[in-house]
């Protein structure tokens, strides 16, 4: 087997510490894992002396040869040479790649740990066969990692090496398990280069049944996550704004027919308003802030809104738990990063949530979307503050963030921008009175969540349906004679949301002619 045809799908990295291995025999655990479908194995042992390393490596090699999969040694080129295995894996602080290549020859498989674009580019130039890109998520298995880079950092590296590293294979490492593996592969993918697999220590080595664990992981590696399944049917997606708008009534009608659940974890200020809006657009609201309930609620085919407007450390744990539940079940999730840049707690909540799961849609004002993108600009309060971006920059920001997260981003303002990374639109419906009442952005998240609950085939279309339904209702409400200001605007808005739902279901689409 040459370095070129190695299967990196499920890369097992061993650990010899009792914390992970317990009192079990390393070779037996590895054999069970190979039985379960591990495709490549690295012997990583930071504790044993050289004699033990060599004898254990020999035993492991006898087993991996029976399964016809490559065995690599972490760090210790001498051990690899001594037993004649297929290659080595070296870190940034180990012997350099060029020297390792000289010692091991051109047929050896040599992998390198990288956590930055520069390290990745250098490893490609120096002839690495594969890169171990990490650390994906913070992990107790290796606490001295240089940096946790997540899916966005990994995607950046993949993009940067797409050209010079055409033949370089890549795996992600760090905190990957059966809950996270599908999202890791999906969200870190760049259109020009994707991961070839995942490297795993504890989710296999520490598993009660390493064979079963490997089987499950391998099947997850081979299957797209529930939240991606629909987006594979890319070919059907309408590219043109006009064509998309034509499909909006179908989505709005489906909400009325299916009455999906909109599960809101939201702040006290908007709970009542959001529930009324959900009812008006044809959905069934439930305001439930405890994460435990999400494990039941996610089974009802609805969607989840996480609105961090009332975040507490305990609340954050609840959001994370609910996010995991919906991701596993496959239900859509909308993030409303209210006031994301305003306080340290909110900034860290956004980071934790983005690392902890997948959001189909992230909706926020300019300041919030900038914070989500990683800007450190200090935000005052939860209003959007003065704008610093022109329209072209706003469009670029939502597009880049959507491409990075592989979801849909909505930036609200006088003009709303939405993008799925490849299609970006600006919508100028709405009314100034929306800025004079509380929670107008939050309940837009609720509206969008209901559209997603009935269709995730084209998330951008569902988001657009929610946006137009809501912003045009606001326009119609504000123009009513009985609306004298913010106070009378609120009930009128709820009425007009309801009227649009009714009219659309009855086939009357005159309201949609206002779309702009
Ligand atoms: N290298 P687990 S993280 C060996 O970031 C190793 O380079 C890492 O263990 C890196 O799958 C890591 O149990 C440990 O999280 C991965
Ligand atoms: Mg090392």
From TrEMBL:
Record SUPFAM superfamilies: Ribokinase-like, Thiamin phosphate synthase
Segments forming a coiled coil: none
Biological role stated in the UniProt entry: Condenses 4-methyl-5-(beta-hydroxyethyl)thiazole monophosphate (THZ-P) and 2-methyl-4-amino-5-hydroxymethyl pyrimidine pyrophosphate (HMP-PP) to form thiamine monophosphate (TMP).
Gene3D superfamilies named in the record: 3.40.1190.20, Aldolase class I
Family classification: In the N-terminal section; belongs to the thiamine-phosphate synthase family.
One of the Pfam families matching this protein, by short name: TMP-TENI
Domain Thiamine phosphate synthase/TenI: start-end pairs: 10-204
InterPro entries: Aldolase_TIM (IPR013785), Hyethyz_kinase (IPR000417), Ribokinase-like (IPR029056), ThiamineP_synth_sf (IPR036206), ThiamineP_synth_TenI (IPR022998), TMP_synthase (IPR034291)
GO molecular function (one): ATP binding
Keywords for this protein: ATP-binding, Kinase, Magnesium, Metal-binding, Nucleotide-binding, Thiamine biosynthesis, Transferase
Reactions accelerated catalytically: 2-[(2R,5Z)-2-carboxy-4-methylthiazol-5(2H)-ylidene]ethyl phosphate + 4-amino-2-methyl-5-(diphosphooxymethyl)pyrimidine + 2 H(+) = thiamine phosphate + CO2 + diphosphate; 4-methyl-5-(2-phosphooxyethyl)-thiazole + 4-amino-2-methyl-5-(diphosphooxymethyl)pyrimidine + H(+) = thiamine phosphate + diphosphate; 5-(2-hydroxyethyl)-4-methylthiazole + ATP = 4-methyl-5-(2-phosphooxyethyl)-thiazole + ADP + H(+); 2-(2-carboxy-4-methylthiazol-5-yl)ethyl phosphate + 4-amino-2-methyl-5-(diphosphooxymethyl)pyrimidine + 2 H(+) = thiamine phosphate + CO2 + diphosphate
Pathway: Cofactor biosynthesis; thiamine diphosphate biosynthesis; 4-methyl-5-(2-phosphoethyl)-thiazole from 5-(2-hydroxyethyl)-4-methylthiazole: step 1/1; Cofactor biosynthesis; thiamine diphosphate biosynthesis; thiamine phosphate from 4-amino-2-methyl-5-diphosphomethylpyrimidine and 4-methyl-5-(2-phosphoethyl)-thiazole: step 1/1
Keyword Kinase: yes
Cellular component terms (Gene Ontology): cytoplasm
Organism annotation: Amorphotheca resinae ATCC 22711
Protein's UniProt name: Thiamine phosphate synthase/TenI domain-containing protein
Top-rank lineage group of the source organism: Eukaryota
Cofactors demanded by this protein: Mg(2+)
HAMAP family given in the database record: Thz_kinase (MF_00228), TMP_synthase (MF_00097)
């Amino acid at each position: 087997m040459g370095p070129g045809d190695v299967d990196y799908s499920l890369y097992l990295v061993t650990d010899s510490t009792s914390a992970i291995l317990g009192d079990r025999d390393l070779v037996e655990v590895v054999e069970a894992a190979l039985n379960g479908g591990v495709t490549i194995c690295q012997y990583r042992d930071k504790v044993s002396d050289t004699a033990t390393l060599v004898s254990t490596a020999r035993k492991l090699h006898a087993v991996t040869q029976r399964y016809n999969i490559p065995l690599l040694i972490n760090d210790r080129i001498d051990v690899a040479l001594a037993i004649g295995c297929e290659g080595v894996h070296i870190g940034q602080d180990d012997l350099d790649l060029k020297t390792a290549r000289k010692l091991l020859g051109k047929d050896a498989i040599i992998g390198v740990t990288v956590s930055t674009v520069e390290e990745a580019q250098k490893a490609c130039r120096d002839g690495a066969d594969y890169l171990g890109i990490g650390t994906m998520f913070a992990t107790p298995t290796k606490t001295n990692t240089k940096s946790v880079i997540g899916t966005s950092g990994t995607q950046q590296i993949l993009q940067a090496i797409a050209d010079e590293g055409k033949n370089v294979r890549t795996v992600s490492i760090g905190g990957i398990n059966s809950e996270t593996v599908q999202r890791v592969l999906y969200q870190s993918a760049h259109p020009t280069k994707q991961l070839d697999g995942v490297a795993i220590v504890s989710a296999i080595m520490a598993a009660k049944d390493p064979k079963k664990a490997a089987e499950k992981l391998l099947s997850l590696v081979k299957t797209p996550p529930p939240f991606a399944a629909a987006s594979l049917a890319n070919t059907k997606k309408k590219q043109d704004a006009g064509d998309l708008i034509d499909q909006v009534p179908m989505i709005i009608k489906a909400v009325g027919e299916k009455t999906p659940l909109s599960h809101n974890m939201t702040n006290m200020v908007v709970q009542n308003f959001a529930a009324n809006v959900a009812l008006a657009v044809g959905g069934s609201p439930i305001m439930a802030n405890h994460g435990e309930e999400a494990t039941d609620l996610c089974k009802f085919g609805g969607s989840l809104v996480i609105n961090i407007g009332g975040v507490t450390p305990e609340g954050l744990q609840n959001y994370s738990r609910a996010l995991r539940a919906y991701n596993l079940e496959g239900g859509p999730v909308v993030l409303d990063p209210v006031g994301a840049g305003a306080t340290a707690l909110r900034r860290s909540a956004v980071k934790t949530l983005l690392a902890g799961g997948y959001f189909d849609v992230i909706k926020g004002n300019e300041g919030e979307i900038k914070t989500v993108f990683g800007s450190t600009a200090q935000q005052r309060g939860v209003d959007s503050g003065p704008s610093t971006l022109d329209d072209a920059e706003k469009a670029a920001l939502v597009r880049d963030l959507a491409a990075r997260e592989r979801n849909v981003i909505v930036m609200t303002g006088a003009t709303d921008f939405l993008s799925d990374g490849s299609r970006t639109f600006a919508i100028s419906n709405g009314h100034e009175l929306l800025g004079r009442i509380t929670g107008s952005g939050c309940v837009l998240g609720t509206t969008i969540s209901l559209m997603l609950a009935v269709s995730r085939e084209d998330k951008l279309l569902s988001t657009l349906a929610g946006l137009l339904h809501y912003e045009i209702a606001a326009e119609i409400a504000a123009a009513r004679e009985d609306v004298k200001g913010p106070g009378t605007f609120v009930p009128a808005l709820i009425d007009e949301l309801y009227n649009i739902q009714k009219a659309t279901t009855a086939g009357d689409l005159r309201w949609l002619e206002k779309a702009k």
